[in-house]
Design a protein that fits this description.
By secondary structure, the protein is of the alpha+beta class. 30% of the residues lie in helices and 21% in strands. A hairpin with a 2-residue loop joins strand 1 and strand 2. The longest helix has 28 residues.
Length: 577
């Protein structure tokens, strides 16, 4: 090749090889990954985003043990585990430690595969939390947002007139002024499909800025002061709008007034049943019927960019109690989350004619990323309070996921997006952005591709490889006393430090210093059975005492047969000590 340097990454059969050295700029010496399927393999080198053509070589399987230096890792395909996954004896004076992480690396959301991982010394099977994987009912707030994403998917498949880029402000565009009133149709039930599901209300303009106008329902039980509306509007106008559009691209402008309407109405409060207030409540939402030209003549559509949000209700006269301070804290976070959904629908479906909205796991990951991007924006400004307000939701969700990663999907389907799964998808996307730079976010947004194809195109790498490397990062990134390869690290967050600090501040919510605590096994003395869910898996630490004999692992389906090829899986192994 040409222009190689010490950042070059080489893959053999899609698996990372260890680069030993680069000679000049034209050749590299590498160690082939362990445990490949024998036969012809494709070889490719990549320097940052530039990749060579593939060449073919022939791989001959070795009967020797998997020998990894400290810090080296392998993502082993299950088809070759039976004849390959043997590990050498520990040194005479030194112990050895491996992290073993079986994982489903399928790019198909919702895929799963039962598995068994057996060490050669084991006689007793350990079930990975029998019953913990049973479907859990979603709180109403999450079920409502899932229903909206399902509606987006249905609408995206409909024929529609072509839509060009946003026009410049039309001289005939109606002005929006303080005190103006207009009527809106607001989704008022879980499904929101028929016209009676959209309540008609009247709202008054309380703030007008460069990018946003705030309306409040005239029937709101309590309201913000003029100063509080101005402060809330300034957050949208001067801070959040630029954060979101810089990261994800422009929103639509179907009413040609260059404004996003923010409508505070008790209709949103009323969506959440009173019995659900202690679990989760709907804070706000975006509905695609408002901007999709296919619904221009539909009475349900407001033909404007509208974000709907709760109003203050300190006495709980509608349903849940919402103080003024709570609304001022929660609504901006929800706004930037939903604004990403609005931008995504415009960019993918309306602007590029895609016949599918983004897959729900990646759509939600991008919206949770938008919250995090806003947090970092306020941190740069020195506003620690707002940094915490925007970051804490993602950190809580990720903590819940890491406490029991095998129980949740990372690539979840419609209807299963628990907080844990949203935490997983955000963690995965955060790692991707750390590895490929901020520009990858725009590439994920400004496209008609979706899901696995979108991520592979935006990064130039197969999703199975990305998932394996990310899964390692959840344990080894900033692991004390361990130097991880850069591909196995988060760059933006030092999660062990962050969660240890949160554990000190709020031990009830964050009940351990770091949520991920793998089971520990001595040598090959274990057998576990469980279920691998798309993108996720389980973690184990295997420790060998000095002079302890080697061990072997067998990675199969639950009955001991081959794992299904339709659901790609990997046995991830990294030497820790």
């Amino acid at each position: 090749g040409t222009n190689l340097d010490n950042t070059a990454m080489v893959t053999v059969a899609g698996h990372p090889a260890r680069v030993l050295s680069v000679q000049g700029t034209t050749s590299a010496q590498v160690i082939v990954p362990v445990c490949l399927l024998p036969g012809s393999v494709a070889i490719r080198a990549q320097v940052r985003t530039a990749a060579t053509n593939e060449i073919n070589g022939t791989y001959v399987a070795s009967a020797s043990a998997v020998r990894l230096a400290v810090g080296e890792y392998a993502a082993i395909e299950p088809a070759v585990v039976a004849g390959c996954a043997t590990f050498p004896a520990a040194g005479v004076l030194d112990s050895a430690e491996y992290l073993i992480a079986p994982q489903a690396v399928t790019g198909t959301a919702g895929d799963s595969a039962p598995y068994r991982l057996r060490g050669d010394s084991s006689v007793v099977s350990i079930a990975m939390g029998e019953g913990r994987h049973a479907p859990r009912p979603l709180p109403f707030a999450l079920a409502f947002h899932d229903a909206l994403r399902a509606t987006e998917a249905e609408m995206a498949r409909l024929p529609r007139p072509p839509v060009g880029p946003r026009p410049m402000l039309s001289p005939q565009a109606p002005a929006v002024s303080m005190g103006d009133r207009r009527s809106f149709r607001v989704c008022s039930s879980l499904q929101c499909r028929e016209l009676p599901d959209f309540q008609e209300i009247t709202a008054e303009v309380k703030y007008v800025g460069e990018h946003a106008a705030i309306f409040q329902d005239v029937t709101a039980p309590a309201g913000l002061s003029a100063e509080e509306f101005a402060q809330l509007g300034a957050i949208f106008d001067a801070e959040l709008y630029d954060v979101a559009t810089t990261a994800f691209g422009a929103e639509s402008d179907v009413d040609q007034n260059v404004l996003v309407f923010i409508l505070l109405t008790p209709v949103v409060n009323r969506l959440t049943p009173k019995s659900q207030c202690s679990q989760a409540f709907v804070t706000g939402f975006f509905h695609p019927v408002d901007i999709d030209p296919a619904f221009k003549q539909d009475q349900r559509s407001n033909q404007a960019e509208v974000f709907y949000a709760i109003v203050p209700d300190p006495t709980g006269s509608v349903t849940c109690n919402h103080t003024v301070s709570a609304v001022r804290t929660l609504v901006p976070v929800t706004f930037i989350h939903e604004f990403q959904h609005m931008i995504s629908y415009y960019q993918r479906v309306m602007l590029r004619g895609g016949n599918s909205s983004e897959e729900v796991w990646l759509n939600e990951a991008m919206s949770h990323l938008s919250e995090e991007l806003a947090a970092h924006h306020f941190r740069v400004l020195g506003d620690q309070r707002k940094f915490s307000d925007f970051a804490i939701g993602d950190l809580v969700n990720a903590y819940k996921y890491l406490k029991d990663p095998g129980a949740s999907f990372t690539l979840f389907k419609q209807g299963s997006g628990t907080l844990e799964e949203r935490g997983a998808s955000w963690l995965f996307l955060r790692w991707v952005v750390d590895q490929f730079g901020d520009g990858v976010v725009r590439r994920l947004s400004e496209t008609s591709l979706t899901g696995e194809r979108n991520l592979a195109a935006a990064t130039g790498e197969p999703v199975a490889q990305l998932l394996s490397q990310w899964f390692f990062a959840n344990w080894v990134s900033d692991l004390p006393g361990f130097t991880a390869q850069s591909r196995l690290e988060y760059q933006t967050w030092n999660f062990r430090t962050v969660y240890a600090d949160l554990n000190r501040q709020a031990p009830t919510t964050f009940d351990r210093p770091y949520p991920l605590v793998p089971d520990v096994h001595l040598g090959g003395d274990f057998t576990v059975v469980g279920v691998l869910r798309a993108g996720s898996g389980d973690y184990f630490r295997v420790i060998q005492l000095p002079s302890q004999r080697g061990f072997a692992l067998q990675f199969t389906d639950a009955s001991g047969g081959p794992l299904p090829t339709a659901v790609p899986t990997r046995l991830n192994v990294i030497r820790i000590q």
